[in-house]
Amino acid sequence: GQQVMQIPQYQHVQEGEDFTTYCNSSTTLSNIQWYKQRPGGHPVFLIQLVKSGEVKKQKRLTFQFGEAKKNSSLHITATQTTDVGTYFCAGKPSGSRLTFGEGTQLTVNP
Amino acid sequence: DGGITQSPKYLFRKEGQNVTLSCEQNLNHDAMYWYRQDPGQGLRLIYYSQIVNDFQKGDIAEGYSVSREKKESFPLTVTSAQKNPTAFYLCASSIDRTYEQYFGPGTRLTVT
What is the pLDDT of residues B26-74, one digit of tens each? Predict the structure, then answer.
């Protein structure tokens, strides 16, 4: 079946350092979504990317969708303690359902 | 307030008992989903429904059952056949399967 792989599984950074998580699919995606889950909370939708090569920014967060629409990344510049949580990508192939990656758990040391 | 509610937040059951988790949404969404999350793990899809009176199995449907008699409600029953039911259960909804999903606060089920 369709799989969405996400790396790394864990990332520990010092406050102020940058952070990147990567998402890779075995099949071409019609769109990719990113979610954030705070510790003890539930996933919250961040953004959706649809176009090949698309780049979107939300303050310190930069989201990219690969040219082949099989990979995506989320980059956080100058992390803050409020960025702590697990970041999930979710990819949707055409005609199929959304599939979540395993997530990257980010911890930020103050 | 529009949103998704799940109740209860914490649920404790004895092994061998069936238990039903509630999920209600007032977002007028057609699609609803149930996920299971184990500690430090990702989201695994149990069942989903794209329309009333219709639902499909996800990746880990064995030991679970659902119903979708109303658009607003998508209850999940964890049966005694589920080998390892202790987990965090998340319900979600979306306008349809193309759009982003909105998650409820989740139910933490402990079976001893």
Answer: 999 999 999 999 987 889 999 999 999 999 999 999 999 999 999 999 9
Whole-number Å distance between alpha carbons of B97 and B111: 32
The SS3 of residue A22 is strand
Contact A92 B42 (CB under 8 A): no
Among B42, B97, B103, beta carbon nearest to A101 = B42
Find the largest Cα–Cα distance for chain A: 44
d(CA A15, nearest CA chain B) in Å:
22
B42 and A100 within 8 Å at the Cβ level: the answer is yes
B102 touches chain A (CB under 8 A): yes
What is the number of helices (H) and of strands (E) in chain A? 0, 11
Assess contact for A71 and A101: CB atoms under 8 A: no
